[in-house]
TrEMBL record:
One Pfam match: RHH_4
InterPro entries associated with the record: RHH_dom, RHH_sf
Annotated source species: Sneathiella litorea
Protein's name in the database: Ribbon-helix-helix domain-containing protein
Record-annotated Ribbon-helix-helix domain positions: 24-78
Amino acid sequence: MTQTSQTLVNRNISVIDPASGQLHRTSIRLEAIEWEALRDICARDNLSINEFCCRVDMDERRREHSRTSRIRSAILDHYLNNSRQLDS
């Protein structure tokens, strides 16, 4: 059986626990290109990755099922919105 190479990269982040309000560590798995995009967004917006992820995680407008899905969607939203602004 041929094993495919893993393209997902697992990293730890700190997010705020909604029940306690305290920071706790958790892991998310994103594609390498998603991590690169996340670092780019954070550098441009002068945010840490943890700050970005906390904001996304607590955003009541986000309806995605999992934290990782919310983060992926927020990355995509960022680039789509910036692209639309440039097209205007």
